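Sanity check. The docking grid for manganese (II) ion depends on where the pocket ends up, so I'm generating a full predicted complex first rather than guessing from homology. Inputs follow.
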Amino acid sequence: MLIILNKKATQQDQKELMKRLEFMGFVSAPSHSDGQLSIVVIKGADDEINMELFQKLPLVEKILPLSQQFKLAGREFRQHTIIDIKGQTIGGDALTIMAGPCSIESEENIFTTAKLVAEFGATILRGGAFKPRTSPYDFQGLGEPGLRFMHDAATKYGLLSISEVMEIEQIDLVAKYVDILQIGARNMQNFSLLKAVGKIGKPVMLKRGFSATYKDFLMAAEYIMSEGNFNVILCERGIRTFETFTRNTLDIAAVPVLHQLTHLPVIVDPSHGTGIRELVVPMARAAVAAGADGVMVEVHPEPDKALSDAKQTIGVEAFAEMVQSFKMINKIIK
Ligand code: PEP
Ligand code: MN
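Predicted complex below; grid placement will be based on this.
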């Protein structure tokens, strides 16, 4: 249920009303819908709630029952989510470009990459410090020192940063160094991890599981949001199909479908989505043409030498060309 307050309501009124709701036994969270303050009642099934009771509360303009399965992720709740991180927005008119190595490899490597991707139009630096590798014998990431290098590199070159968190125990550490926490495809349905990142104040980018339907994906987002964290970004990164030529099948249709179903920003990762360097730029272009709110690509100054995912990592020149072409695509579609 969504309680939309009238235009006179202040944040203090919103807080007081939430206290009242808590006293009545409901779990609620503050929100806003199209410029008006609102309160979303998270726990307490709609059919058990006497809506008339709420209608009579002071400063209440209207009540929406939120009948969609994804109460918070669905568009009944909100039309658009625009996430503001240190003045940089994700969603809405912005085109977010996340770039960087698959893994943070060394201080020198992340500084060089940050400098180059910033110069050619990236807005967010990516890099894993805790890596979900298919083989336990492969490079597992640098852990905390890697996060520190990435934080310093991102700060120096005016970028935001994003890194994956694989376990609940890593959340505080990763959150200390980066602006956005990434939940990887393998953990999309790790519900205890989702709930835990739902309790912190940092934005979360949730990657689609290999075999997740749109509904599974949005329900996973709902887990995060139901704990009060509404700053969720969705990332389409390819799914498993019968095709084996590519690492995954990048589902470009996910972009318009998700935009229809949810207000959350949608980012596309053509690197993991294809697994093939030559396909990254064309598929990134396709994603932007389909209306994606941004892309995440793996970039390395010497892609063949990347310690992980070298085959799908592009060089700086290709990255620069890709960003240039986005400008032309945007002109046509916007
Ligand atoms: C990544 O982006 O570093 C990653 C491991 O991606 P995914 O979880 O989509 O495989
Ligand atoms: Mn990777």
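Relevant for the grid: The longest helix spans residues 316-333.
Also worth noting: The pocket of manganese (II) ion (ligand 2) is lined by residues 102, 272, 298, 308-309 (CB under 6 Å).
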